[in-house]
Amino acid sequence: MNKVFIAVLLATALAAIEGTIVATAIPSITTDLSGVELISWIYSAYLLTSAIATIIFGKLADLFGRKKMIIIGISIFLLGSLLCGLAQSMEQLIVFRAIQGIGAGSILPITLTIVGELFDTEKKRAKGQGWISMVWGVSGVIGPLVGGFIVDQLTWHYIFLLNIPFGLGSIFMIAKYYEEEVQTAKRKIDYAGALFFSIGMVALLYTIIEGSNTQNWFGSKSIILYAVAAIALIIFVRVELKAEEPIVPLSLFRNRRLNIVNGLTLFVMAIVISISAYLPIFAQSVFGKNATQAGLMLTPLSVMWTVGAILGSNLIGRLTTKTIIQIGTGLLVIATFILTTLSADSNEILVYVGTGLLGVGMGLIAPMLIIAVQTSAKRDQLGTSIGLNSFINTFSQSVGAAIFGMLFNLATSEKLASFGKGDINLNGHFDTNIFSSEEIGQLVDIIASGIRVVYSGSFAFAIVAFVLAFFIAKKKPI
To answer: Coil, strand or helix: which one is 412?
Structure first.
């Protein structure tokens, strides 16, 4: 079991570190491949396919077994990584990132499901999920450092090729040591449900992501895609009602405990994206930090997330899962409130306190949410339930990025445009040949006020999460 768990942690690390290590390679990638206008899709293509894959692979794992599907998922991820490392154009890289995203989307729900089955008590599961959270937290710190070293010493291609030996090691260990009993009864795959779910969610996520990039939410193209998404998802629901083995059993939505947990996931993960996206902007534009220093200001989030995960696993047995989640969401409320007070005159310590508290809160919450899913779902729907939760996790990041981007632009776009000097960088490099010292001071205040609006939105999300935590059922519904 220990060897299988190590393999699971290794597979998790592949998906976890990919989200942070790529960021350090973006300047080199754009220098080599050009296509600066496509930068956002290096992330978005990965995010989009990952979101769809989480729910489909979660169901396939229930049908055909965790072992087979995790090996297939890691293999797809490694194929995408190899192709990304060999990419010769920005368009190729985006397509290959989409392939990589499919693999990454399969890894998350299946590894979480395997952990749920490896450990037979709630306390052991909590420690297992705590280790998974630690992997994500450590990856947030190590990713940028490793990525920077590889780019400086080698080339950006090795950012992707680095995955291959570790992925092969994980496949070998799972294939050799993971023993699983799978029912051999013939299963019918819900191809129609998977197709219409994919069409609907791709259309919806594409519109959300593109809207967050361009701030054009209701252009003719967006309206068409909204319509496509609505029609496809309506057909999807009708298909699921009739399917023998629905890709997403609609009975899951009648499970009150699961609904509350998924709602919590939606709000808390959106808060995280507001921190990771806008704190570096605040650090550079308001505090005048360089990119490396700005990245380091996110370190307390990752480090304290790990601390919170360890603390949470040790609290199981002394406190209920519900109580631990309540404490975690309470910390989110305090942390986001602190961040709403930030200004150009704020002490940097305030940022570290806010992000640190947020990290502890998320470390307490994230493993407990997975445990709540595991204790609420039927065994034959465990993979599907975790897949749905993982999908909501990824979906919330897209929606959160869109909402917070809209809030920031509503608060700043007209004020920044009033300077009449074209696009203004948000990296703190204000040209003194163009702007006077008084104007630079005004720019800093405008950007700071915009980010306060963003964190006011995060504060509202935290309050909703705190309230939802009180509605989690204490015991598994019958």
So the answer is: helix
